[in-house]
Amino acid sequence: MTATTESTTTAGSSGRPTTHQGILAWVTEIAELTQPDRIHWCTGSPEEWAELTDALVGTGTFTRLNPELKPNSFYAASDPTDVARVEDRTYICSVDERDAGPTNNWMDPDQMKDLMRGLYAGCMKGRTMYVIPFVMGHLEAEKPMFGVEITDSAYVTVSMSVMARMGTEVLRKMEELEAAGEDFQWVPALHSVGMPLEPGQADVPWPCNDTKYIVQFPEERMIWSFGSGYGGNALLGKKCYALRIASVMARDEGWMAEHMLILKLTSPAGVTKYVAAAFPSACGKTNLAMLKPTIPGWKVEAIGDDIAWMRIGDDGRLWAVNPEYGFFGVAPGTNEHTNPNAMATINKGNSVFTNVALTEDGDVWWEGLENPPARATSWKGEPWTPDSEELSSHANSRYCTPIKQCDMLAPEYDDPRGVPIDAILFGGRRKTTVPLVTEARDWTHGTFMGATLSSETTAAATGAVGVVRRDPMAMLPFIGYNAGDYFGHWINIGKDNDASRLPKIFYVNWFRRGEDGGFLWPGFGENSRVLKWVVERIDGQAAAVETPIGHVPAPGALDVDGLDLTDEELAQALAVDVEEWKAEIPQIQEWFEKFGDDLPSVLWTELDGLKARLDA
Ligand code: SAT
Ligand code: MN
């Protein structure tokens, strides 16, 4: 190994950066393969943040924002080709192809490793290799969920320090456990932007490679990523670990890793409920997690906005933690009306903004934010004015901000046991067919609702936007194994546990449109009215009518007091149109057929039941 080890912070008396043999051996092996100029063991300290952000300003990756407006915050613009998750380049390399199922790309793991070793060979030349010890969830958890990310991107390192608990403390804990002879797991997560530098070659602000691979090896609990610097492709603790790899661990160990926000809802009477909700990327999870209720006396506190890990507790209830440490939210559309709590959080600073517009006073702006600047620089680096034809910001531009800065974060966020979930919401973006809210009849029916979740595609992944696709449990790009088995896992959670202790399941759609093409429901803070009906249903207080697809609010049961909405609009938002639903049946059938014998038969039974009720 030719690289020098820069960091002294974790060096023991031996002078080695860690006493953990496994990590040291892996870092040595990867350094030999990738040939970085330097190795930096991350500490997670404020000094390290300052050093890395200064260096990123130096290379032109970051622009420091005006400290009076956004203290200690930075603007970055990616390469215009590297702006979202690349689902067609994402692989589940299970030993058996069958285990990747029909919804994932698959390649034989040995073949993939050969291919990627070729790409990784010398790929960090001229760069620093950062070693990031991290933990998803709490370091104090009964079984901390460790990982080590190796990356050659300082941008990724800085972003990881916002999104995950990382650094010296985490490494120490792993060293202690190893020294105590404890058996514990850590996930090796290798990332490279895939752009080595020859001696004297100038770097670019956003290095990346046209060849991209985002690869999970589920049996080995290992992640290899190449070619992209963007969020979900490169911050490997997030979707790659906390969903794809964790979903496999969860299958094997009897828990659940889900693409869900977690919120705490307190009624005027002081009754507290916890809600988890699964929506596809860029469908409003962050806004719902930080919702500011419009109905008097109700309060929402955030616990998570993207990922929930849920386990059955000793009390038979489903307990959820948010494994993340920051918010990686969609910027466009975020403003004082749609998400005042997110605005307050990012305005405290310590944040990274990617692919938004940069204003002349050193602030950021994006479509939907108040007070458009007279002039700005677009995410593509071009002059922009409100008259410009192009958007100032990419539709998937993001803010990356520490969760602890959110004033309405529930204190339970810090509890390694998590919170007991009372209700699970599934939802998607549908212009038609799907009513504002529907309650499932039971867990199995709720699983059917989740398994058939449909949504119009968004800019969070590359590809066409606005196409209806099935996105089961909003996990389509994140299930790390055969989705048929995943549905079976959901069914088993209901079978193996006391159903009366499990959360009630609902399906929501904020995005239904009227004949004039406008949204039927105002959304955002007004969604508190739907949450109120949900928790009143759980407590047996709110009325519902039974329909072929489940229970919807009875007339008058949804609190629309003070809402500027006609009876006709409300009726349309809640309507169950039998003909529209009959048109869904062949689509659901086609979707289920993809899974062949791997689809749990009870889901066919649910579909038959739905058909019969629609025909009745
Ligand atoms: O790109 S991320 O996966 O980090 C965000 C998202 O698509 O949900
Ligand atoms: Mn997400």
TrEMBL record:
Binding site for substrate: 85, 230-232, 281, 396-398
Region (Disordered): 1-20
Residue ranges occupied by any Phosphoenolpyruvate carboxykinase GTP-utilising N-terminal domain in the UniProt entry: 26-251
Cofactor(s) essential for the protein: Mn(2+)
InterPro entries assigned to the protein according to its UniProt record, in alphabetical order: PEP_carboxykin_GTP_CS (IPR018091), PEP_carboxykinase_C (IPR013035), PEP_carboxykinase_GTP (IPR008209), PEP_carboxykinase_GTP_C (IPR035077), PEP_carboxykinase_GTP_N (IPR035078), PEP_carboxykinase_N (IPR008210)
E.C. code: 4.1.1.32
Gene3D superfamilies according to UniProt: 3.90.228.20, Phosphoenolpyruvate Carboxykinase, domain 1 (3.40.449.10), Phosphoenolpyruvate Carboxykinase, domain 2 (2.170.8.10)
Subunit text: Monomer.
Name this polypeptide is given: Phosphoenolpyruvate carboxykinase [GTP]
Primary gene name: pckG
